Amino acid sequence: MRKNGIEPNLITFSTLICGHCKIGNMEAAMEAFRLHNEMLEAGVTPNVFTVSCLIDGLCKDERTSEALELFLAKTRAGSSNIETNVMDSSLSSPNHMMYTALIQGKQLHALVMKLGFEHVIHLQTSLVNVYSASCGIVDAHKMFDEMPEKNVICWTALISAYVENQKPNMALQLFRQMQMENVEPDQVTVTVALSACADLGALEMGEWIHSYVRRKKGLNTNLCLKNALINMYATCGDIEAARRLFDSLQRKDVTTWTSMIVGHALHGQAEEALKLFSEMKETRESPKKKKKNNGCNGSASPIVPNDVTFIGVLMSCSHAGMVEEGKRQFRSMIEDYGLKPRDSHFGCMVDLFCRAGMLEEAHDFISKMPVRANAVVWRTLLSACGLNGNVELGSRVRQKLLELEPSHAGDSVVLSNIYASKGMWERKMVVRDQMMGRRRSPGCSSIEVGSGIFEFVAADDDHPLKSEIIEVLKHLVVNMKAYGYSTQLSCLEDY
Predict the structure, then answer these.
(1) Of 58, 76, 118, 241, whose CB has the highest number of CB atoms within 10 Å?
(2) Residue 448's beta-bridge partner residues?
(3) Which GO terms describe its molecular function (predicted)?
(4) Are 463 and 469 in contact (CB under 8 A)?
(5) Which SS3 state, helix, strand or coil, does residue 118 take?
C-alpha cells in the first residue's frame, strides 16, 4: 500500500489488527500490537473497534492479565466511548483461569453499572461467568436473579456455574426450574445437566434427560451431547447402555473413545478398555463434512489419544494387575505421543504398583517423579501400607503427609490401624493422642429417589423421614444377621 504512495488510515489499521487477532496465537498477537504501535506513531487514534479486537485477541491467546490491563488503561485514559462489545471481551478474560480473583470481577461489574450497561443481557451473562470462575457462586446467582429477562443462555451459564463449583445437585434443581418457567433447554444446557448427573451418579435423572433429547424435535443432538450421554451412563453405573450408545454412533472423536475407555476402566473391565484402546489407535476419524475438491472427498484423520485417554488405560492396567503393560503405556504416552504426565497419571502408576503389592517400587516411583508428589499420591501408598501391614514404610509415608497436610486426621487413623494390626498398642496410643482436638470432615453421601437427590452425612438427624429410615435400617440389620452377617466395629470408634 505504501509502495503505491497510499498511507493506511484508521479503517486499514483496524482491519489488519482485527484479522491478526482472530488467528488467536502468540505470533499473530505480536503482529497486531506492532500494527497498533505503528498506528499510534502515525498519529491515528484507535477507536472502540480496534481496542475491542486487541482485547479479544489477548483473551484468545490466554493472555488474560494483559487483556485486562489494556482495558483498564484505555478506561483510565478517559475513553468515554466504551461499548458493550469491549466490556464483553474484558469480562470474558477472567474466565480463562488467569485472572479469577473476585475483586477484579466486582470492579468490572461496578464499571458496567457506571457506564449504564447493567441491563445488557450478554454483559449480565458474562458477569455470571466471571463470578463463577472466581468461586463467587453466591454473587453469580445474585447477578442472575437481578436479570429482568432470562434466556436459555443465562440459565445455562448459572447451571454451568454450579457444576463447575462442585454443586451438581443445585445445578439439576435449576435445570428443572428452568423448564417450569417455560424456558426450553438447548443442547448446551442438556450437556451441562448430564455432567451434573454424572457427578451425582443420578442415573434416573440422566435417563429422563436422554428421553427428553429423543422426543424433543429440533434439538441439535451433536456429538458433544452424545459424548455427554455416554459419560453419564458409564459414570452412573449403566455401562451396558453406554456401550450400546457408543456402538450406535457412526462418527466418533477422541472424547467418544475416551469416555468409553474410562467407563470400562471404572467398572473394572480392563480387557474391554484395552481392546477398545487398540481399536481406537487403528481408527481414523471421519471428516464432519465431505469436501468436494476436484472430485475428492475430505480425508479422514487418525484419532490420537489424549492425556485423559491414558488415565483410562492406566486405570485398566491397575485394576487388571498388568504392571508391565502399565509401565509400557506410561512410557508410550510420553515418548510416542509427547504428552506430559499430570498428577492423575502419576497417581495411576502408584496405584498400579500398590495393587500389585509392590510398595517399595511405588515409593521409588514417587521419589523419582519430576514434580513434587501431592498428598493424594502419598495417601494412595499409605492406604496400601495399611492393607499390607507395612509398618516401616507406612510411618515414613505418614511423615511426608504431615509435611503436606498436617491437619488431615484420616492419615493418622490409617497409621493407627497399622500399629493395631501388629499389636503395637503403645505406638497406636501415641498416634491417638496426637489426633486429639482434630476431627475428620464428615463425608457426604447422596441417594436418588424419584426426581430428587438427597444428601446426608454420618449421624445425620435432619431428614424429615428420619424415624422411618431408622426403622428400615433396623429390619435390614435383622435380615442380614439371619444370613450370618456379624457387625465389625472400626478402630475409628476409639476416636
Answers:
(1) 58
(2) 453
(3) RNA binding
(4) yes
(5) coil
The count of domains in the chain is 2
Q: Is the dihedral of CA 47, 50, 55, 58 positive or negative?
A: negative
What is this structure's pTM?
0.72
Asked, for residue 71, whether it belongs to a domain, the answer is yes
Alpha-carbon gap, residue 356 to 347, rounded angstroms: 14
Q: Per the structure block, which three cell numbers stand in for 76?
A: 483510565
Instruction: Please give the Cα distance from 175 to 190 (Å, whole number).
Output: 9
* CATH classification at residue 66: 1.25.40.10
| Domain boundary, last residue among 105, 134, 149 | 149
273 confidence band (pLDDT: 50, 70, 90): very high
Residue 359 in contact with residue 366, Cβ under 8 Å?
no
Closest CA to 73 of 40, 119, 121: 40
Provide the 3-class DSSP secondary structure of residue 358. Answer: coil
C-alpha distances out from residue 212 to 180, 205, 229, 241, Å = 14, 10, 12, 16
Question: Angle between the 10-23 and 26-41 helix axes, to the nearest 10 degrees?
Answer: 170
Q: Which three cell numbers stand for residue 437?
A: 482436638
Residue 423 confidence (pLDDT) = 86
Are 44 and 10 within 8 A, CB to CB? yes
Do the domain assignments include residue 7? yes
* Paired sense of beta strands 301-302 and 444-449, if any: unpaired
Alpha helix positions (H), 115-248: 121-133, 137-145, 152-164, 168-180, 187-200, 203-215, 223-235, 239-248
Q: At what angle do helices 375-388 and 409-421 cross, to 10 degrees?
A: 20
Tell me which residue range forms the domain holding 481: 445-494
The Cα–Cα gap between 13 and 16 comes to 5
Q: Is residue 16 part of a domain?
A: yes
pLDDT tens string 195-234: 999 999 999 999 999 999 988 877 777 899 999 999 999 9
Model confidence over 457-484: pLDDT tens digits?
766 777 777 788 888 888 888 888 888 7
Q: Which residue has the cell 458477569?
A: 127
Q: How far is CA 378 from CA 88, 142, 177, 381, 491, in A?
A: 43, 40, 43, 5, 22
- Indicate the residue type of 117: F
Give the pLDDT confidence of 122-179 residue by residue, as tens digits: 677 877 877 777 777 888 898 888 888 899 999 999 999 999 998 999 999 999 999 9
The amino acid occupying position 430 is V
Report d(CA 58, CA 94) in Å as an integer: 12
